[in-house]
Specification:
- This protein is an all-alpha fold.
- It is 78% helix and 0% strand.
- The chain contains 13 helices and no strands.
- Helix 5 crosses helix 6 and helix 5 crosses helix 13.
- It is globular.
- The protein starts with a helix and ends with a helix.
Length: 232
């Protein structure tokens, strides 16, 4: 009973509420992709289309990462922070996500063509490159860098250097995608916020230690977003 009395119920409830609220905002911003998944019968057969459409999730992820940082700094108005960050980082995040989606499509098509062909030996390399693109883009969106080739290459290097964190992020993202496809209610309304929080924490660990070494990293974007939202 004493242990139960010491539990920070307000903190727990505020965290759960913030997570559910972020899930709702993520659903709204990813609505075109979700509608396409609902209307399409077999998404695996049309994976290049859905991979391209998933670029819309770039600004959503960047906004969620900004909300996580603001919440960890004591800002509980995650809705305002989310939409302010969504507007502020839309161009940068959409550009990075579009580049990543294009690379994944090209590499994925090459992977399919190489399977069962004399070039089958390159399939592990292609799979590694696909994973690297996703991991590097995630780290880029989480730490707020400028959209430059040198910045993206730096995050690719850091993703390889901290391969265990990148692998953990890929596992979390894969689980989230599988849950959304298999159990949409659970996957959409319960899992996105906690899953993306884990990804954000790992990605911040990948890029945060080396922000002074990564060209074009802009520290304080979430803080600026919080300041802007506070004046509304």
């Amino acid at each position: 009973m004493r242990l139960l009395a010491r539990l920070p119920y307000d903190t727990v409830l505020n965290t759960v509420y913030a997570g559910l609220k972020l899930n709702l905002h993520l659903i709204i911003t990813a609505l075109p992709l979700l509608l396409a998944l609902a209307l399409g019968g077999r998404p695996l057969q049309a994976w290049p289309f859905f991979a391209g459409l998933s670029a819309l999730c770039g600004p959503s992820a960047a906004a969620a990462f900004a909300a996580f940082r603001a919440f960890s700094e004591g800002e509980h108005r995650v809705g305002r922070v989310f939409w302010a960050a969504y507007r502020t980082s839309f161009g940068r995040a959409m550009g990075a996500a579009t580049v990543a989606a294009a690379l994944v499509i090209v590499l994925g098509v090459d992977f399919q063509l190489a399977l069962g062909s004399p070039f089958g030996a390159v399939t592990p390399l292609l799979a590694l490159l696909i994973a690297l693109v996703v991991a590097a883009t995630t780290a880029f969106l989480a730490t707020g860098g400028r959209l430059r080739p040198s910045t993206l290459l730096a995050y690719a290097y850091l993703s390889l250097r901290y391969w265990h964190l990148s692998l953990a992020n890929l596992a979390v993202l894969g689980t989230l995608v599988a849950a959304v496809v298999a159990k949409p209610a659970i996957g959409l309304f319960l899992l996105p916020a906690p899953a993306l929080y884990i990804v954000w924490a790992n990605a911040r660990h990948i890029g945060g230690r080396h922000e002074h070494r990564v060209p074009g990293v802009r520290e304080g974007i979430p803080a600026q977003v919080v300041s802007d939202s506070a004046h509304r």
